[in-house]
Write a structure and sequence with these properties.
The protein is built from 18 helices and no strands. By secondary structure, the chain is an all-alpha fold. This is Serine/threonine exchanger SteT.
């Protein structure tokens, strides 16, 4: 394996970047996994939470897009925060993403596993207890993680083609659910739609913070487009960079999709049905709209969406670790590039190994829901941390734009600043409400970064 080999430059255009951004958030997966959590926290205000969190995340997207102009870098947040605030802050920004991605390997692969077991149960008349057996769920999740890791390691082109196929199939299934849901239940909704769902005055500070921190999990993953900046085609002179344009269109589509899909879930399912569905909310919706076996296509969309988001998170982790190792912030061995596949194969192997170990540990927890609740909240804290830092880096780097006109001031400084402040507020406000396991994952995961930081300084 050669350190002289480079990433596959010029492999992705604007369209592929947008697909990666959408697939990174895994729309079907996000709805399936997070809906029960957010509805249990804020009820019908889940729609407003998704809207306002989308606006916050749009400001973060603007920050990433502008920072990408400094230099497209596989490390993205790590590189830009380090450029603006110094290497220590840059390291912890990158470390926050690495920790979030590792924890995500558990919360992401488990829905794929439960969906796979659900299909197997329907096809072979297996015991329904399998879906709640954490040992079986962890085993099937590890199998999925291994298969996805192999695809990612083989090259970015393979990954992008796989994402395109899965996203098209997933989109067709989801659109069928949306159309059928409005036709069948708009006149007899389980929850009557009102403008209060969208009103900011319907929230208290506590409910806004709780809803937004959970809603952040819906949107997380679009920023993979920026970690693939070194593998994206160069922009023509005077044009916006493909990674930035891809992120913009991905975010616009995601905000609209999540709002519409949450409305569909609320008009089709009662609160008890949402809670009972747990990680299979889409299947519960499809089961009320379509006869068997057609309702099983919703399970397929969840599996495909989960595969897509696991793939993009492996890409984010491996590219960030590659960039940090290339700069000697982590051990240089993680910067090794496969000479044929042009992928950071060592870093990719690391997240596979850590993911399998975490899945093995999670198999000892009492229930699948307990695993997901702890991991989703901890990841939300990590997202607030590293994306908030990126927003502040954008504000400081482009602070001179405050004198360049309303549009430049708003898009480069004011909106990113508001998003960054709210990100930090959400993380700090809800930290005292975490249970012991969630706090250990959220705070302990960041704190342990001191060890590799000091080791990196010792080596250099």
């Amino acid at each position: 394996m050669s350190e002289k080999a480079s990433l596959a430059k010029g492999s992705l255009g604007t369209f592929e970047s947008a697909v990666m951004g959408v697939a990174g958030t895994a729309p079907a997966f996000s709805v399936a996994v997070t809906t029960a959590v957010i509805v249990s926290v804020v009820g019908e205000l889940a729609v407003g939470s998704i809207l306002y969190c989308g606006l916050i995340m749009f400001g973060i997207m603007l920050a990433f897009t502008h920072l990408n102009k400094i230099s497209p870098n596989a490390g993205a947040t790590y590189a830009w925060v380090g450029h603006v605030f110094g290497p220590t802050w840059g390291f912890f920004a990158g470390w926050g993403l690495l920790v979030a991605s590792i924890v995500f390997m558990v919360s992401a692969t488990i829905p794929a596993a439960t969906s796979t077991l659900l299909i197997a149960q329907n096809a072979f008349d297996l015991s329904p207890d399998l879906i709640e057996d954490t040992r079986w769920v962890a085993f099937v999740a590890a199998v999925w993680l291994t298969l996805i890791t192999i695809v990612v390691t083989k090259g970015i082109k393979h990954a992008s083609y796989a994402q395109l196929i899965m996203t098209v199939i997933e989109t067709i299934i989801i659109f069928a659910l949306i159309i059928a849901g409005f036709i069948e239940y708009w006149g007899k909704p389980a929850h009557m739609p009102t403008w209060a769902w969208f009103s900011p005055f319907s929230f208290t500070p506590e409910s806004f913070a709780a809803g937004a921190l959970t809603a952040i999990f819906f949107y997380w993953g679009w920023d993979v487009t920026m970690n693939l900046g070194e593998e994206t085609k160069e922009a023509a002179e005077g044009e916006a960079q493909p990674a930035g344009r891809g992120a913009f269109w991905a975010m616009v589509n995601l905000i609209l999709f999540f709002i519409i899909m949450m409305i569909v879930v609320l008009i089709v399912l009662t609160d008890d049905e949402i809670a009972a569905a747990n990680t299979n909310v889409l299947y519960a919706v499809a089961d009320k709209l379509f006869p068997k076996p057609w309702s099983s296509f919703a399970v397929l969309s969840t599996i495909l969406s989960t595969i897509g988001t696991v793939e993009t998170q492996i890409l984010q982790f491996s590219r960030s670790m590659f960039a940090m190792s290339r700069d000697k912030m982590l051990h240089p061995r993680y910067a090794n590039i496969h000479p044929e596949w042009q992928t950071p194969w060592v870093a990719t192997f690391v997240i596979w190994l850590l993911g399998v170990l975490l899945l093995a540990a999670s198999s000892t927890m009492a229930s699948v829901k307990a695993i997901l609740d702890s991991s989703v909240m901890a990841i939300g804290f990590h997202i607030c941390f590293y994306m908030g830092l990126a927003a502040f880096a954008c504000v400081w780097h482009y602070r001179g734009m405050l004198k360049s006109g309303v549009y430049d001031a708003f898009s480069h400084v004011i909106w990113p600043l508001g998003s960054g402040v709210l990100m930090f507020f959400l993380g700090l406000y809800l930290l005292p409400t975490f249970d012991g396991i969630t706090t250990l994952i959220a705070v302990g995961g960041l704190a342990i970064g001191v060890v590799p930081l000091l080791l990196g300084r010792y080596r250099t």
